[in-house]
Write a structure and sequence with these properties.
The chain is an alpha+beta fold. It is 26% helix and 18% strand. It has a single domain, classed as 60s Ribosomal Protein L30, Chain: A (2-Layer Sandwich), CATH 3.30.1330.40.
């Protein structure tokens, strides 16, 4: 099965890893942090606020595939 690297410039830089890999009809997203993709700084709000930031970053990665 062919693997495809998914990358979004609107999500935080993944370092030496891929933001996500698409394999067939599955997408595997690597660990995301509450990092602001514009400033590259970690957002240190409450747990709920950090989770919201992380989910926004994941949503941004998936939007490239829709």
């Amino acid at each position: 099965m062919k693997k495809e690297v998914i990358y979004s410039m609107d999500a935080p830089e993944p370092g030496p890893y891929a933001q996500a890999i698409k394999c067939g009809n599955l997408i595997f997203v690597s660990g995301q942090t509450s990092e602001n993709p514009v400033t590259n700084e970690v957002f240190n709000g409450s747990v709920a606020e950090q989770a919201e930031c992380i989910l926004k970053n994941i949503r941004t990665i998936f939007q490239n595939e829709v």
